[in-house]
Design brief:
Layout: H1 3-16, H2 29-38, H3 44-57, H4 61-76, H5 82-100, H6 108-112, H7 119-128, H8 139-148, H9 156-166, H10 169-185
Length: 215
């Protein structure tokens, strides 16, 4: 897909969703960071079910560190990998207090040095909390980038780099949201709903599904 075609693809998604935003519920950079860590291999909807109680008990890094892994775990048992995530969050909160004065750092290297935080999580926090034009590639965006021809790549990092090169700079900050929501609700893994895709005229997918299945 050329840069011009990629721009047309993104602008079509933008026209259909002018004000995209994350579906995770959060109050500030810290609660966003916690929600994103919890969202690994878990739906945003499930994360949103467990975070109200967790955030009420531990709204700050100091409170989260004091709660400890056992206390955190009591609030998040319904999500996948909850035991490992509880340990990560306890250590992450303690590190924020000890090394960053209880604030979430705005630098990628500092974010990625936190327990349980990888490149994708750092990209989400930099984008959503701090307005940086980063591209977090999850399974939806990875699939969409390859399926549509927007940003083919064998790894999430390759897809990320291709998207950063092809997405117009003025669209890059919101592109993560447009693509993840499109992949989640329209360009689905098993049955893409191409008949209601606003960007299908700019898509290179050869096996477009142009009508819904018969009832």
């Amino acid at each position: 897909m050329s840069r011009e075609q990629a721009a047309a693809f993104l602008r079509a998604l933008a026209a259909a969703n002018p004000a995209p935003r994350t579906e995770l519920h959060y109050h500030d950079p810290f609660t966003l960071l916690v929600a994103v860590v919890l969202s690994a291999q878990t739906t945003d909807a499930m994360v949103n079910k467990v975070t109200p109680g967790l955030f009420a008990a531990a709204p700050t890094p100091a409170a989260m560190a004091a709660l400890g892994a056992e206390g955190i775990g009591a609030h998040i048992r319904r999500i996948g990998l909850w035991q490992a995530k509880a340990r990560h969050l306890a250590a992450l909160a303690a590190q924020l207090v000890e090394k960053h004065g209880g604030a979430v750092p705005r630098e990628r290297a500092a974010l990625e040095a936190l327990p349980g935080v990888g490149r994708k999580t750092a990209n989400v926090v930099l984008n959503v909390a701090f307005g940086e034009p980063t591209m977090a590639v999850d399974t939806h965006i990875f699939r969409l980038g390859n399926r549509t021809g927007l940003a083919p790549g064998k790894t999430p990092r390759a897809v990320e780099e291709a998207l950063v090169k092809r997405v117009p700079p003025e669209l890059l900050r919101d592109a993560h949201h447009w693509l993840i929501l499109h992949g989640r609700y329209v360009c689905k893994a098993r049955a893409p709903e191409c008949w209601r895709c606003p960007a299908r005229a700019h898509c290179n997918y050869k096996d477009k599904v142009l009508a819904p299945p018969a009832a």
